[in-house]
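Entry 14. Structure prediction run on the chain below.
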Amino acid sequence: MTEIPLHVVFVEARVKKGNKYLLAKRSSKDDQAAGKRAVPGGKVEIELESDIIENSLRREVIEEVGIQIENFQFLGSRSFLRSSGHHVVALSFLADHKSGEAMPLDDQDEVKWVEIEEMESLLDDHWTDLVNTIKKKHKKI
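Output returned:
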């Protein structure tokens, strides 16, 4: 029998509150991008449910930074290899802050709300396309 290659599906949220966006600093003990700035997100679990992407996004944001989100807008997708060798397909969303106070929880050392210009300076180059997409959406609001 031929083995079917699988992808890990990953969802992440650029959470907006007023004119600021939430950034987290990954744990220095994390095996993937330790100590790097990122947005909250995580793997889509193997479940059979309606709205699995949206539910996964809500769950991961609550687990990582303790806030509720709403009004998801799909921004784009990308793929990358994890340090473990797994191929990951990442789905990126813009979401509005609904409620709660952001705090570093699972796998995070720090969280902070930043304006779009600061976000651009804090994130690695592979985030450039998504930051530019957010800038375009930000100008329309």
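The radius of gyration is 15 Å.
Filed with the rest of this week's runs.
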